[in-house]
Design a protein that fits this description.
The protein is built from two helices and four strands. By secondary structure, the protein is of the alpha+beta class. It has a single domain, classed as Alpha-Beta Plaits (2-Layer Sandwich), CATH 3.30.70.80. A four-stranded antiparallel beta sheet has the order 2-3-1-4, with helices on one face. The radius of gyration is 19 Å and the shape is elongated. The protein starts with a strand and ends in a 23-residue tail after the last strand. The relative contact order is 0.25. The mean pLDDT is 89.
Length: 87
């Protein structure tokens, strides 16, 4: 059974120290230019993990990712208008 995962964006001041975030979850991406880390963790223990991450001295703020709530299945209900614009 696959555990439910949630994504978080962690804004940091020090990227070298941010490598230690790997022990709290799976680090997916680290932005060197904008100083943030995208990471995923189990949803059932995410609240206590976020409290532990916020205590770290190099963490500015933490935002939850809404990627799993965005609709990704698209339907094309609009009729094809290419025949009206052909020469």
């Amino acid at each position: 059974m696959i555990a439910e995962r949630t994504g978080y964006i962690v804004w940091v001041t020090d990227l070298k120290a941010a490598r230690a975030l790997d022990k709290y979850g799976t680090v997916h991406y680290m932005s060197r230019k904008m100083h943030y880390v995208v990471m995923y963790m189990n949803a059932d223990r995410s609240e206590e993990t976020i409290r532990n991450i916020q205590r770290l001295p190099y963490v500015k703020k933490i935002e939850r990712s809404y990627r799993n709530e965005i609709k990704t299945e698209y339907t094309q209900n609009v009729p094809d208008k290419t025949r009206f614009y052909s020469l």
